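With this grant's support, we have settled on a layout for protein records. A representative record follows, to show the layout.
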Amino acid sequence: IELSAVCLPEGNKLEWVTTAENSSRGFTYEIERKSSLDADFQLIDVVSSTTRMPVASYKYFDNQVSGAATYRLKLVDEDGGITFSPEVYIERQVITLPVSLCQQQSANSTAIVLQPEIKLYTQSGKEADVRVVVCHDNRCEVDVAQIPAGVYVVKIKIGKRRYTQHVTIKK
């Protein structure tokens, strides 16, 4: 089994290629993930074999992950035999920036959600191509998987307020 993982803005894409499925009588692939918070691998999904061809390829998209993760496939054959794929490590480089907003509550008020404008710039001032993944509970996560390691300037604009912060992205 050849397993690979690619970090995309929406999540991690896993792909694997198998050989000699035509000689198997039936089996499943258990997709397992281990994050830095997990002591052991956790089952995240099960995929059944779909073909009896000599070579078959599969794809799985994991959008329930943040930070680093290690993946492996657990191949379970019809007779209960188990084989593991080599492990694949992938790290999502996500910057978390605190954003504090003062909110007043009253019986006659309406909640207003402010979507911050967040931009990253290289040391030379060129804007980096990043995407805000999620803003929730005064935190915004920016996916930086597609930009190279280095020092960047983060500029945040919320209404008329502006914040600037230097960050170092490690790969």
Notes: The chain is about 0% helix and 55% strand. The radius of gyration is 22 Å.
